[in-house]
């Protein structure tokens, strides 16, 4: 079993829902201090009422796409408030279907802002030596199996996740000199509010995955492992979590 200590601070984005919520709760239960970031204050507060160690759960209401160019400064301000970071789980994201006829500049920007640009600029902030603990710092990102599958109807989502996976792998080679590790997870279909609509529950999609739909804990466990020192020899990887399905 992996344990964390309360003097280790982790940013968890998307902590108000789905995979990010489960990750924030598990990391807090295992002893880490969590800076839980999302837009919806009520859902963040509801998450906190379910956590095991409320004294180590800190809520930050923030739209990561607002004032996006200043996200590195946002991270510095969080560091001034809480202390240097031991890591981040970037779980915020949107998963809209966009066939070609619906694509325009604004739609591309909306998806790439939260799925690609925000995680990169958050990384710039955390990777700054003044804002992290150095060796032992681990950054984990939610990409998607669609980064590899490029499913029909998901060109922008697939593109944003493929770009994220490629960029994180490249950046991992830079930050290694400061002892920082970076990895992406590429889940398949996980039951969350993002995937509740009928369009995701087709026989064609369900039959692709031998163990059916995954649960948020299936991904959160992998995030915890990658955040922990138990994965200290692992960096720059893209891990598919799809129950041995299509990849
Ligand atoms: N579920 C799946 O099957 C699946 C599969 C592969 C990959 N993924 C990836 O896993 C990640 C988590 O997905 P999920 O299924 O857990 O989704 P979810 O339940 O819809 O949660 C998404 C989270 O992102 C936050 N968020 C969205 N826009 C934001 C913004 N502008 N600023 C700050 N926070 C924002 C939301 O919080 P607020 O609304 O409170 O801001 C929410 O906490 C996503 O990156 C997704 O692409 C999911």
- Helicity, as a percent range: 25-40%
- Helix/strand order, N-terminal first: EHEHEHEHEHHEHHE
The beta-strand count equals: 7
Round the Cα radius of gyration to an integer and report it. Answer: 17 Å
The CATH class is identified as Alpha Beta
Largest sheet, order of strands side by side? 3-2-1-4-5-6-7
> What is the fold-level CATH name, i.e. the topology?
Rossmann fold
Mean pLDDT: 96
| Class derived from helix and strand content | alpha/beta
What ranges have pLDDT less than 50 throughout 5 or more consecutive residues?
A: none
The domain count comes to: 1
Which distinct ligands sit in these coordinates? Answer: NADP nicotinamide-adenine-dinucleotide phosphate
Would you identify the CATH architecture?
A: 3-Layer(aba) Sandwich
Beta content comes to 15-25%
Largest sheet: 7 strands, parallel
What is the tally of helical segments? 8
CATH superfamily: NAD(P)-binding Rossmann-like Domain
Distance between the termini: 28 Å
**Outline, from the CA principal axes?**
globular
Description:
The protein is of the alpha/beta class. The chain has one domain (about 10-240): NAD(P)-binding Rossmann-like Domain (Rossmann fold). Helices cover about 40% and strands about 15% of the residues. It has 8 helices and 7 strands. Strands 3-2-1-4-5-6-7 form a 7-stranded parallel beta sheet, sandwiched between helices. Helix 3 (about 70-80) packs parallel to helix 4 and helix 4 runs parallel beside helix 6 (about 155-175). The mean pLDDT is about 95. Bound molecules: NADP nicotinamide-adenine-dinucleotide phosphate (NAP). NADP nicotinamide-adenine-dinucleotide phosphate binds near residues 14, 18, 144, 193 and 195.
């Amino acid at each position: 079993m992996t344990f964390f200590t309360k003097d280790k601070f982790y940013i968890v984005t998307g902590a108000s829902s789905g995979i990010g919520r489960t990750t924030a709760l598990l990391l807090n239960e295992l002893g880490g201090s969590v800076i839980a970031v999302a837009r919806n204050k009520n859902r963040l507060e509801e998450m906190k009422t379910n956590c095991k160690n409320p004294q180590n759960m800190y809520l930050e209401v923030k739209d990561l796409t607002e004032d996006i160019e200043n996200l590195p400064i946002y991270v510095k301000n969080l560091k001034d408030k809480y202390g240097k970071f031991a890591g981040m789980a970037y779980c915020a994201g949107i998963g809209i279907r966009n066939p070609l006829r619906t694509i325009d500049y604004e739609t591309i920007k909306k998806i790439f802002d939260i799925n690609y640009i925000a995680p990169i600029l958050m990384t710039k902030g955390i990777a700054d030596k003044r804002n992290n603990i150095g060796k032992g710092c681990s950054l984990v990102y939610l990409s998607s199996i669609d980064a590899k599958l490029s499913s029909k109807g998901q060109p922008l989502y697939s593109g944003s996740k493929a770009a994220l996976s490629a960029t994180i792998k490249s950046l991992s080679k830079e930050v290694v000199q400061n002892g920082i590790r970076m990895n992406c997870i590429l889940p398949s279909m996980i039951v969350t509010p993002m995937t509740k609509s009928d369009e995701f529950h087709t026989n064609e999609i369900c039959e692709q995955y031998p163990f059916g739909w995954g649960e948020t804990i299936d991904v959160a466990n992998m995030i915890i492992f990658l955040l922990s020192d138990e994965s200290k020899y692992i960096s720059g990887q893209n891990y598919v979590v799809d129950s041995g399905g299509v990849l």
